[in-house]
Automatic annotation (TrEMBL):
SUPFAM superfamilies: NAD(P)-binding Rossmann-fold domains
Family (UniProt): Belongs to the short-chain dehydrogenases/reductases (SDR) family.
Keyword Oxidoreductase: yes
Pfam families xrefs: adh_short
Oxidoreductase recorded as keyword: yes
Name of the molecule in the record: Short chain dehydrogenase reductase family protein, putative
Signal peptide: none
This enzyme's EC code(s): 1.1.1.62
Keywords from the UniProt entry: Oxidoreductase
Entry's Gene Ontology molecular function annotations: estradiol 17-beta-dehydrogenase [NAD(P)+] activity
InterPro entries, A to Z: NAD(P)-bd_dom_sf, SDR_fam, VLCFA-Steroid_DH
Amino acid sequence: MYQICSTIGLLQLSYQAYNFIDYVNRYYFTTPIPLKDQFPQKYALITGGTQGLGYGYAEELARRGYNIILASRSEDQIQKTITDQNQII
């Protein structure tokens, strides 16, 4: 019985150690893939790009050289976002 419990414990410990090493390797030692290499398109369509996460994505993709197509329910918000983005870039 002791042998079985020891084996199960060792397997569980090995599994946890593997997950920890994988986490550290994935988030601290890998280099990010440039978006232009992975997605060579020139345009990015962003829905909800006038506020929140969509706005942040629009800002970052514009910095990385993409042409942005914004989709929103309000034309006023789109005009404001375009003005803001042009000032940033």
